[in-house]
């Protein structure tokens, strides 16, 4: 069985699942960010795969580029937020940041 | 099994194994370094998909930018001098069940779907094509991305400065 569309989609599905697992289970906010990056990467693999095997021209490549740029912006903003949280309540565990609850 | 398939399996193995290590490793610095191999593996997959420009951008932006940002975040939010770099986990069992079910459903639908693929044409260098598309058909996207990056940089700097 030669490598085709399905193989790449299987890889990206597994990558997506692992990113979701990291987001759900890890306490540290930076680990949650790493899970988000894994999910964005899996989405990018899907876009480029369909651009290669489908009949859409190169639009998939452009969407992948846009996703990469947005991921860079998101990482910068999110790390600034995490640093502020750490400075104010000196923890980055997402389950302990519940000041607004009470 | 030709050489293309072998290289694909190599990169897929690197990507998935290191991603698994990222999500299961207790030490957050080790996770960040395993993420490096995941990004490299994904860049290799892009090369196999004939997306040379995306692969290089992946290497530059993810490995050179985002990973360094994440490492900075780890270093600034953990006291490196104590051994307090380990992170805990929550919701372990529901997460395993839920994510396992989701992964099973995704894999089943991906494998069983009747994908219609067209014949692979010759792989062309994509840089020129992407540049033309960006400056003609997707010009609005291009400009919006520039504005978004500018706003994000200003916002991040002003948030982190105080």
Notes on the structure:
The complex is a heterodimer of chains A (102) and B (162). Chain A is mainly α and 102 residues long. Helices cover 75% and strands 0% of the residues of chain A. In chain A, helix 2 runs antiparallel to helix 3. Chain A starts with a helix and ends in a 13-residue tail after the last helix. The model of chain A has no long low-confidence stretch (mean pLDDT 90). Chain B is globular, with a radius of gyration of 20 Å. Chain B is mainly α. Chains A and B meet through helix 1, helix 2 and helix 3 of A and helix 1, helix 2, helix 3, helix 4 and helix 5 of B.
How many separate helices of chain A?
3
Report on the biggest sheet of chain B: none
Q: What is the N-to-C succession of helices and strands of chain B?
A: HHHHHH
Outline the low-pLDDT stretches of chain A: none
- DSSP helix fraction of chain B: over 70%
What is the helix/strand order of chain A? HHH
Return the average pLDDT of chain A rounded to an integer: 90
Greatest interface by residues involved:
A-B, 70 and 80 residues
The shape of chain A is elongated
Strand-pairing-aware structural class of chain B: mainly alpha
The structure class of chain A reads: mainly alpha
Strand content of chain A: under 5%
Low-confidence stretches of chain B: none
Topology summary:
The complex is a heterodimer of chains A (102) and B (162).
Chain A: H1 5-25, H2 29-53, H3 59-89
Chain B: H1 3-24, H2 28-48, H3 52-77, H4 92-112, H5 127-135, H6 139-161
Helix pairs in contact in B: 1-2, 2-3
What's the short version?
The complex is a heterodimer of chains A (102) and B (162). Chain A is mostly helical. Chain A is built from 3 helices and no strands.
List the keywords.
heterodimer, A: 102 residues, mainly alpha, B: 162 residues, globular
